[in-house]
Amino acid sequence: MIVPLEHILLLAFILFLMGAVCALARRNLVMILLGLEVMLNAAGIAFVGASLRWMEMDGQAFVLFIMGVAAAEIAVGLALLVYCWRRSGSLDVNVFSRLKG
Amino acid sequence: MNAFPLLSTLIFLPLLGALATVLLSRSPALCRAAALGTALAELLLAACAIPLAADPGTILAENAAWIPSFGIRYALAMDGLSGLLVLMTAFLGVLAVLTSFKEITKRPGAYYAFLLAVETSACGVFLAKDLFLFYLFWEVQLVPMFFLIGVWGHEDRRKAALKFFLFSIAGGMLMLLAVIGAWLAQPEGARTFSLAALMAAPAAPHVQNWLFAAFFLAFAVKMPIVPVHTWLPDAHTQAPTAGSVILAGVLLKTGAYGLIRLAFPLFPDAAALSVPLLFVLGLAGLYHASLCALAQTDAKRLVAYSSVAHMALIVIGVAAWNAVSLSGAMLQMINHALTTGGLFIMIGMLSRRSGSRELASFGGVWKRSPVLGAFFLFFCMASAGLPGLNNFVSELLTLVGTWTGHPGVAAAAFAGAVLTLTYVLKLAQGTLFGTPAATQPEQWPDAEPLELCVLSPLAASILYLGFAPQAVLDMLRGPVSDFLPRIPQLFQ
Amino acid sequence: MTLYGAIFYLLAAIILAATALALTRRALMHAVVYLVNAFFATAMLFYLLGAPLPAAFEVIIYAGAIMVLFLFIIMLMGVKDGRDMDAKKALAVWLPPVFLGAATLAAGWVLITAPAGAKEALPMARATPAELGRFVFDRYWLGVEAVSFLLFAGLAGALFLGKSGDEAGKTAKDGQGGAA
Amino acid sequence: MQANLSLLLALPLFGALVLALLGRRLSRPMVERLACAAIIAAFIAALTALAGAWGETRLVPLFPWFSAGGFSASMDVLYDPLSGIMAVMVTFVSAIIHIHSVGYMRGDESYARYFCYLNLFVFFMLVITLADNLAFLFLGWEGVGFCSYALIGFWFADAERTLAGRKAFVMTRIGDVGFLIAMALFFATLGTLSLSGIIASVSALSVGTATALGLLLLWAAVGKSAQLPLLVWLPDAMAGPTPVSALIHAATMVTAGVYLLMRLFPVLALSQAALAAVGAVGAVTALFASFSALGQRDIKRILAWSTISQVGYMFLGIAAGDLCGGMFHLLAHAFFKSLLFMGAGCVIQALHEEHDIFRMGSRVRTAMPPVFLLFFLGALALAAVPPASGYFSKGRILYATLSHGGGLFTLYWAMGSLAAILTALYTFRLVFVAFFGDPAFPPKTWDIEPLPRFMIHVLWPLGALALLAGGLNLPGNFSGAEWLSHALRTVPGADAEFHGVSELAVSLADAGFCAVGLFLAWMLYGPRTAPGRRGPADPERFAHRMLRSGFGLDALYRKTVLTPFLALSGFMRRVVDEGAVDAAFMSQGVLWARTSMAARRLATGRTSTYLLTFLLGLAAICAVLLAKGA
Amino acid sequence: MTAVAEGWTPILPYAILAGGALAVFLAASLTKGRPSRVFAPISLLCALGAGLAALCAAPQAGIFAGTLDAGPFARFYQILTCGLTAGAILLLGGYSRRRGFERDELYALTLLAALGMCLLTAAVDWVILFLGLEMLSISLYVIIAAHKDAPQAAEAALKYFVLGAVASSFLLFGIALVYAATGETGVAESLRDAAQHGMEGIALLGFSCILVGLGFKISLAPFHLWTPDVYQGAPAPVTAFLSTGSKVAVFAALLRMALSESPLFARMDPVLWTLAALTMTAAPLGAMTQPSVKRMLAYSSAGHMGYLFMALLAAPIAGPGPIMFYSAVYGIMDMGAFGALSTLSPLDRDADDIMDFRGMGFDRPYAAGALALCLLTLAGLPPTAGFTGKFFLFESALSAGYVWLAVIGVISAIISVYYYLRVLAAMYMRAPEWAPARESAPGSYAVLALACAGALALGLLPAPVLSVMAASAPFTP
Fold first, then answer.
1. CB-CB: which of A1, A22, A97 is closest to C121?
2. Best mutation target, D614, D618, D625, to test chain C (most C CBs within 10 A)
3. Fewer C-beta within 10 Å: chain E N or C terminus?
């Protein structure tokens, strides 16, 4: 018997929040993307835990899809990052704040 | 139910005319011709609809399914009151088009299109028998008026147009909730927007209070009743002459018409409760507007405040809710349109000659243009309620009717007649008598033929309604006897 | 507290520690490496929770593909450290997110632990990769198609942004934006 | 009969309409002839109508005006001896004034407008005279008000005159409010506005309602007939051409109020309080006006104040219940007062617009004796010198007041008598100063303007009537047949008999009052007295200033009513309308704009701030759930 | 067990869109990178084809491949999204060709975004919903940055990406928690029996995260701050596509959740109420004193989402009819507004500041006329569709008893009239500031004409559309 589902979900939740806090706090774009990865991973953990709890493979199938989506997202994200880095020369997310008001 | 959809053509003929003027906007002459043609056709149509509406035999009505899932039908009907108001709208439409010939040079095509569009929406309001259709026409009239004031107005037109629109839309939107509320108040199964059904089964009294309040606010803004009237002087001073004529002659009447045909019959209990408030607002409006009118220096603002005072009489007449006062109030709606329309047309002519609307720039008009002076004095006296002219008949009926139920209110309103005279004489004094102001140009033509053929029918109609209003009063007898029993508390 | 429970808590501790370290490093390279460790620990956790195929994919895709991509980009840009972790503003920058994170954690904790449904320990079970594969293609074949198009869109997008990046080079620095 | 009456009404209206529409195209003589012909024809129609329906009362419907829900106002005519005689008087005096105006207005170029208004005025006056329905009567009532406004301000170039016109119209309109409310009350209580209907069901009125109606009708009459307290407009109304003053402010309009009270006398008779009030107004105004007339220097203002005083007597006559006496004095007054005004008009034109009697001297008497003779005849009648008509008509009223009995009416009689003395005094002061001796102040020019002959000679009939009109209703002790009271006996309320005090004694007393007045005038202003002392008393002395300004009533109204009213309207516009109401709505807009500006600062454009909203949102949602759930 | 839709017809729209994207890439490879004008027609054809396929395919009330709803509800939204995509492609074509950034990827990604939308609206399963949303988002990130020369396009894309990615992760974590609490991957089933297994707290937290994720996408109040920046930065046709397509599709998903008779909605009622009220007050506050028309339109679109969210609250009682109708109306008027904006803009930069619009009314009668009509529709004035739409929304809100929410909505509508009229006043009542560039893009005029026709037709004769929706009301959960 492994741990109760509650603990797995708590672990996932904590991980998720750490990823969120990093994305919110850090100014460097790369670090924000890393925080994003952590958040997606946390969701994966929650899914695996849930699929064990319900004895269904849906959760695990979902994890696979998450990985696919994460890969696509990071690809576009990093392409955009480089594209913006080339144009502005800095990785600070707030360097672009001309659109406001 | 005659085959030819008379009422729909009455409503949408001006719209067709509007499209025609837009298409012809290349050459101003053609625009003018198209606009005048449409307006005259509309007047002719309205005139031949009147005898049908007058005799109780024929029933002028149209009914077609529109949005069945919400019980909304395209229902029109014309009785005495709406027939008269449509005729008046058509008559003022012709006059408005005629006065614009000389005054409007910038983009006449669009101008006449908007003018005719306002006419369409007004006829729609007067003929609609379905609450949703009424509300649709009620809101539609704002947009063309907004453009009329905004594009072709005077120096501060944008602010006035926006102020006009926002005041009306604020009332209108709240009324939207009340319209839905009235619809929801009906039992689950048989929900419909037809006015007859809504009037037959009014909602529960406590719900009625809220609904009546929203309806009354929307109509109060449009009539206008005192606290929410401040948009009218600005709208009038900035609007072009024809705009002012239509605004005073037609739009204000939709407010009064709504109050009489919708607010009171739809929510009888709430209406009965609101009678004291209406009296207070009516008297406050009469005295406040008259005093403010006396203190004005701009001729159009003075006449604008005077129309607020005249409309306050209608509020009193409606609140008294008996046969004499109600027919007086309805007649006052028509009379006020003619007299105030006349005054605005005259002020338009004079300000075109003197270059400004300030009373100081007029003066000595009788010396320089006696015919115009005579007409101006005629309209001033009509507005002051001189017997033998039209306003006297309606004011007398309204206040004598009000006396039977509420002597105190009627006495105060009678005293208002003195105030009316003070600002009318100030207007006449500043304009007609004394020596011409220095700022006036030397070239000051007397009445041109075009102006004469605008003023003479108006003066003739005022005299006719002054001496022989019985034909009109007979037409109003039907609607009055139909409305009165709807509020048992008020009508013994 | 069975053996597996112990292993679970150990792995959980490793994951949390590695992630915390990864997200607070000034140097981007260190952050990525720590994160790779965290992903290895997650893979083992997946294996423990009876999901061998996701565990393998976790290593291949997350640790392998995505992290390597990060390294590649960091090296491409030649950026040494995050340069945004200077001390003096740290408090003002970190305080609101941390405070909000803590508040959400507290609320979430109560919400998760309040109901009784998730208390009893989970049985051991394993979904063999063959079963999972057959299940995915039986139940979610449309999802797989969709992911394929998703990846295709990502690919096209990345190429599009990347390819015309050099031409846009000459216009670099024009969108300098506000304060550096 | 109906043809006669509709002709009587139609002719002046037709004349006015033709002049209004075509006036500018017609030549001057054509306009004058048309105007005079219309009125003369109307006079003939009135005469034939009177002869035709002698002594009967007929209700003749002309035109169904309007009716709605129980209220009906129709243009019907109630033709009885009272209205018949009044119509004849109105048309007769108007005819003479029209002819006189042709001469008087010979120099004025906007003659068409003048005659149009004059004809219109006669039409409205006839409407008042003949109307059965009160609403129709009100049509005439306001119509004459408008015509007097238009004619007072006839020379509109001079702003001063138009202001006088406006003052007259507004003041009469204040009176008219009483009339409107009375109409409403009649409809509420009796359900009808027709005079015949009211008189028929007058017994249904309670005393309270009758008193209220009486007071309202009194208020309307006070406004129209320029009695206290609404009399300040009449002296200023002299700004209009003199024939206008003669017609409107002597013969017809000012008596309209009296006529209304006569018409509705049965209602008044129900309440003693109302009659006492009418009497009070009459007596006090008579005395007040006669004092004020003493202090005037302008010949037309003297006559204006005298008119107010004489109309006061008519009020007194009605109060005493002697309808016939009131009517008798009304007729007599119409004749001699219009004569006096037109005579004054001739004097003014002759002396090149000289209004101040102390600058006239005997020049006019020597240059144009007929003018002086005519004026003198009018003066005799005014001062009630026997055997002139004034003596009998005023005597009849004083007799009726005295014989009415009761302390109050005896007081009224005393005031009436004092006023009679003063009347004689100021009349002869006017005659002596304006026509005898040399002027106290040097006049502007000494030459005399020659006047057209017909202008003067048309006045002879009035001169004769001023002298002989007494015959209309010679009292018994003068072996008179009292023709007028017999004629009016069928008029409701006009059949009161008076005996108690010997008629002889009263008539002797009247003659005495007139003698005393004459003697005083001779002593103070007679041709024999030294020119120095004969001049106007020191104008600054308080008494004279009070008299000249009509006891300062006009200044009082200006200070207590007019200025505060204008200040209030200025206040309402600036402070209440634009300041409070408009600002309230506009500030709503400004408030929303300011909050919008503040809210827009939230969108900083920095992605990190936007990211914060996520956790903020989640935390908030969870917090609400916990608060609600737990 | 719900009926399973037989045959392959339901898949047709998706297949056409996917095939279209591939066809565009194929065409690009054939023309070897030379700018050619063939891409626009192909993509337009595919978009319209997909719409037609959805229109003609007889709707079967069933589930296709266990994950896609083939019923009338999905069909309605597919037709709507394909229509909007076709409009966007038309606008994009003329706009990008003239500014020189027309590329095949642009069209392909638009089609893929459309595919994502269709999946999102038809998704019955969380997996497909998440994948649809991701496909939509990823394509949009790239399209926004498509115009290299536009200085702010990059900034808008970056902002949209960072925030969109974080929102997606919130959504994903929410789905995970809901799945953990119920064991169901079906959207409706998981929400309906969220309380059966005694893990209601977890389901609540999960649904909150979902709400935050989707709330960002349809710019609900606290999460709406990105909308003005992205709408201002992105090129006008892209904004048109972004504001209409993505919001309508995401709202369809939300509507599906609301109609699943889930106890969660009852528990979350105060939260949803506050979100709706907050959105309806924040939108006018943001837009009222806004000098930039694009930002004003962004806040106004947030406001309209607020009205829709108010109706969403009432959906369980009043049914999906009003929301579906208003989604169509909203799509038309926003497409018209941004389309007119793109037609009126000069070549160097988008016409954004209100000063640029001065005097346009009479110089550019058709384009400015279209913008004026769309603004009037946005303001909700009869006889446009905005009025009938708003009427139905308020009717459903009032019938569900949310009186005070309706009052807030009305006040927000009144203020919204002000800032729409400000633009009208600038266009028609002021002298022009500069000579407007002559624009002769037939494609964009076609879109404007269709938008205006749609606005007026739905305003005057909403009955046919309403009957379609009545048919689609009993869709398969």
1. A1
2. D618
3. N
